[in-house]
Amino acid sequence: MREMSKGANVGLATLMDDPGPVTVSLSWSSDDGRGDADVSVLLLDVAGKVRSDTDFFFYNHPAATDGSVQLLGKTPTATGMEDRISVDLTAIPSDVDRVVVAASRYGGARFGDLGDLRLDLADSTGQALLGFSMEAGPESGFVFGELYRRTGEWKFRAVGQGYDTGLAGLATDFGIDVDDAEEAPDGERESLLNDEAEAPQPEAPAGQPEAPAGIRPVTSAAVPAQRSEPTDSGPGRPRRPRTARRRVTLPRAVRRSLAENETWRSARLFPVPSLKSDRERETRATSVLLAVMAQVPEFGRRLTAAFGAPAGHTETFTEVSLPHGESPKRPDGVIRIERAGKLWTALVETKTNGNGLRSDQVQGYVDIAARRGYEAVITISNDVALDGRPMVDVRIDGRRKNKVGLWHLSWADIAHQAQMLIRHEGVGNAGHAWLLQELLLYLQHENSGCHGFQNMGPAWVPVRNAIDTETLCQGDRRTVEVVESWERLIRQVCLRMGGELGQKVMPVQRTKRGADAVARRAALADCLCEEGRPHAALRLEGAPGNLAVTADLRTGKLRTSVTPPPRKRGGFSLCLVGVATDQPGP
Fold it and tell me: Which candidate, 470, 385, 514, 474, places its Cα nearest to that of 126?
């Protein structure tokens, strides 16, 4: 991987054979675990301006219709948070000259308060191509880097430029008109949102995204943007754009049943009570999932974009026989996506219940994919991956020209994405919503085998007993295994809470700058030996404080608490202390 310095540039053709889909990752850390920023992407023409408001991607406009840009969301890292963006260079319109990757903070927060500011660029297989670490000061807006064309070739430039005026100053440079209310402090900004939510809002033109924080994009041709009529907020004062994040929530109300009694069961598109063996569960789960991915574009794109797949026509297959030595191999499924005459192919291997993935089996699929020029192998099971690592170890032959990406999905990840779409973000039509609802009901059924992480592993009971008898010693490898299982459990809790609330819920990881995941887990294992209690902290978007979770293995109790930060009122400091509740332990 090439390390970049500020102002340096490099041609992507020197780093990858065929510049195509890439993943841009922006990461940072904070001492209290609550530092965050909003990522944005701008497509600029040769004049350095956006062509229209649809060239600005942010939380209310996260994806391009042509699949060229998609914001993939945040994931926890060993030292903080990472926000990823999928950019398909082959799909970028020909009149776009630059792709700018930026981020902004609000309410007086500055990038100098964050540590480990970094941009990483990876190819479609997940292999890191380049990295750029940077320092920031009082800036509230920051351009991390940009992808740009030169003589028909894509290049990357490490920018690292900050704006004291936040997103307003950043956006103005790229031809976006900004309302003066954009940089209001958190309290005032929240008040603006509430005031605007109560007032009748003019409908945006079809295809136009809602502008964030007072931003109103204009075209590079300097065509005056239309302002809405003045409101009651002041003489001649224009209405501010609605800044609240768009949440299209489908009704949850349950219709009155027409059944004569409770023994009558509704007919289901994907029935599960008849499933008796693990093989039947795996076959059914694979077929159900792949069929819905092909029929609901929003859902299929949500799952495959993070793996470098393009946006295009999708077809899925099950039980495909592929030649491999003396006997053919049969992966559980195949995903094929066509765009502009090119095919992207992924082999799929699924497991249900507590069944684990086998290294030799996955290795065979990786070898087949490499020989046949396929792009990816996707594994799906109830296990939750940590730190972006594959669930099994495989050998990648570096001599092969075709590189194969190995990716993992948990059934809990899949259920979370389905729930977010149908309960909070919305889908294209009622038919798609119904299909996703049927998929979610299938995954949540007790007989489907797709329940997500449930097993704390073989080390759990011995460690718990050793803590109870005070015989557990530091350095015991089993405690590290328990710490890893605890992290997987917390990740799943975050997914389920986020799906119910419609908000981002992320585990908070406070570590020293430069610490790696192995050292961090070793330190947590030592604390577990001393205290007998694994800890976790969850950050809920919009919540006043982190949610602390502690499992006391000696008493078998689960303790949760929330401590909001102190707030000053009238010269006094008001501190609200969270009330702890005891629940049965794991």
Answer: 385
DSSP assignment, residue 228?
P
Cβ-based neighbours of 455, under 8 Å, separated by 6 or more: 354, 382, 485
pTM: 0.78
Strand-pair partners of 39: 103
Please give the Cα distance from 98 to 445 (Å, whole number): 47
The 10s digit of each residue's pLDDT in 272-316 is 877 778 889 999 999 999 999 999 998 999 899 888 888 889 999
Structure tokens at 336: 């094929």
Helix, strand or coil for residue 155? strand
Cα–Cα distance, 117 to 77 (Å, whole number): 13
Cβ atoms of 404 and 367 closer than 8 Å: no
Characterize the bridge pairing of strands 376-381 and 342-350.
Answer: parallel
Q: Does residue 79 carry a pLDDT above 90?
A: no
210 residue type, one letter = E
pLDDT over 80 (residue 16): yes
Q: How far is CA 119 from CA 75, 76, 84, in A?
A: 14, 15, 10
pLDDT per residue as tens digits for the range 188-214: 333 333 333 333 333 444 445 555 544
Rounded alpha-carbon distances, angstroms, from residue 530 to 87, 191, 204, 466, 474:
46, 46, 58, 12, 8
| Cα-based torsion angle of the residue sequence 248, 307, 509, 146 in order, rounded to the nearest 10 degrees | -90
Q: Give the pLDDT of residue 400.
A: 60
Tell me, what DSSP letter sits at residue 111? Answer: G
Cα–Cα distance, 307 to 22 (Å, whole number) = 9
